[in-house]
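Technical note accompanying the year-one report. For the benefit of new consortium partners, we illustrate the data format agreed upon in the data management plan: each record pairs a sequence with a structure-token string. No post-processing was applied to the example shown here.
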Amino acid sequence: MTRLSGSDQFHLLLDRKMLRNGLSGNISRIHLQLSSDTDLATLAERLSSNSTLKAISELRVIQRWPFLPLWKQVNSEREYIGISTGLSQADFRSSILNRKVSNSEGLVFIDLCELQDGTKHVVVSMHHVLFDHQGMVNFMMALADEANSFPLFQESEPISLLKTLGNAAYMTVYMLSRRSTELGTLIGKHIKPQNEPKFEVIRFT
């Protein structure tokens, strides 16, 4: 088992606050539109055989009070890939683009979807405690090519309990004080969730 880092602790705190505000939680998503001739069943089979995805789907945060949370890999039979067809745009936005992932159900889930208009999509929903930005890039590379596998935890020097707590406190103050992230708005107790999630779309050609 591996101890969570300071930034991991921060993302767990952020998730707790988001859930209390009625949001889906601290979840990151990658949404890609597939070519129309993509066979979703074949793609699901290929993804299910990916060793990196399987290992990540089995990661859980273990709480052992009074000690800090730890990462643990557990044997799990829970599904982490789903295929949906005949979805309307409204259903796609409300269910797939708002899918919840949790420590109890698994911290990552991949939706393969075909909409009523014939377009096909893949949406990767993952808890932010799993990856930072570079981690997401590494993960997508590992999904695209099994040869691009990465260790789940980079080798690092052991950090004392006091320093880990200090890093978590620093990360919390730093992130909540930055205007660019607008995370400071989560401090308010009466913030209501938006009716529609906000999306930033980047198109690749």
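Partners are asked to follow this layout when depositing records. The CA atoms of residues 17 and 186 lie 7 Å apart.
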